[in-house]
Design goal:
This protein is of the alpha/beta class and 180 residues long. The protein contains 5 helices and 5 strands. It has a 5-stranded mixed β-sheet, with helices on one face. The radius of gyration is 19 Å and the shape is globular.
């Protein structure tokens, strides 16, 4: 069964007196820009690492990994799975921007755990077109981390596959558990 967030009804108009979340982002950015100082950073990450992780809003990767702005490339998607687009980003990260290490981070309580390809079929029924991408759901969290590590290690496009490590982040404790 697919979990679909509530959709606004066609008659539900936004409250014009209340700013949207994107309006609040723009306002917060204006405040941020007042004290912003260009540190002269390069696009090359200082720590020469790329992190692939789930897009889950509960993962504050910079805090959890002790990263500072400019330290790492962070690539996020649903499930933190290694897809063709992830390989594309990692290849650019390594070949054009100098990264050498890759950390893969999945997490407990992931929304992809147990989701099925029925999700794609339901989308096809709803919109009349089948998505070309796979859901990449899984039932074995550790196994999926291992699969992601294998996809990275066997990619012909990546130069540096000797320092690839995979982890599961526990959303209740904040701890990483390494997967062999």
């Amino acid at each position: 069964m697919t979990v679909t967030p509530d959709r606004p009804t066609p008659n539900a108009a936004a409250d014009p007196a209340r700013p949207s979340i994107i309006d609040r982002f723009v306002a917060a950015n204006r405040e941020y820009a007042v004290t912003f100082h260009d540190g002269g950073m390069d696009a090359r990450p200082v720590q020469k690492i790329a992190v692939v992780a789930c897009m889950d809003a509960r993962l504050d990767l910079f805090a959890a990994l002790g990263l500072e702005l400019g330290d790492a490339h962070v690539i996020r998607n649903a499930g933190g799975v290694v897809t063709d687009d992830t390989i594309r980003s990692l290849t650019i990260s390594q070949r054009a921007l100098g990264t050498r290490s890759i950390a893969l981070i999945h997490h407990t309580g992931c929304g992809l755990l147990g989701l099925t390809e029925d999700f794609r079929r339901e989308l096809e029924l709803e919109v009349g077109q089948r998505p070309q991408w796979a859901v990449e759901s899984f039932v074995d969290l550790d196994g999926d981390v291992r699969q992601s590590m294998q996809r990275v290690r066997t990619s012909p496009f990546l130069l540096h596959t000797d320092d690839v490590r995979g982890f599961v982040f526990d959303v209740h404790t904040g701890l990483l558990r390494e997967i062999d």
